[in-house]
Design goal:
The protein is mainly α. The protein is built from five helices and two strands, in the order ααβαβαα. It starts with 5 loop residues before the first helix and ends in a 6-residue tail after the last helix. Bound molecules: zinc ion.
Length: about 130
């Protein structure tokens, strides 16, 4: 697959989103999509069992910097996802992106600008403000 242009993606979303055009529909659809993302990760853990959550308190040393602590901080997610669960989660993440792009369309914000602005912010702030 070649490079995907966000502008093209956003335009495609705008052309496809005919039935649920109201901002209220898109807001509730977007929330539903996020819930389905969470649900598909939960199902991978509790129904498929390909991944598990192994969690305890983070071993964070306040004497050290966040940067020094970073390698010891856990995601608590023990993977990898099996092919099926990965496929399901990928599809749900895609739906989430679809409604995010739809919200961008309605509010006349370019998705590419959102990502660009966030990248710039991350580059400026660095690792310390990602909490
Ligand atoms: Zn699985």
């Amino acid at each position: 697959m070649g490079t995907i242009h966000l502008d093209d993606f956003q335009k495609q979303v705008s052309q496809l989103l005919i039935r649920h055009r109201s901002v209220l529909d898109v807001l509730s659809k977007s929330q539903e999509a996020n819930a389905r993302i969470n649900r598909s990760i939960t199902k991978a853990i509790t129904e498929c069992g390909c991944v598990e959550v192994v969690a305890k308190k983070q071993a964070y040393d306040p004497e050290k910097s966040l940067h020094e602590n970073q390698p010891h901080l856990e995601t608590h997610f023990h993977g990898p996802l099996c092919e099926h669960c990965k496929e399901v989660l990928t599809a749900e993440l895609g739906k989430g992106l679809f409604y995010l792009a739809a919200l961008c369309n309605i509010t006349e914000i370019k998705l590419a600008d959102v990502i660009k602005a966030e990248c710039d912010k991350l580059n400026t702030l660095g690792v310390f403000n990602l909490s």
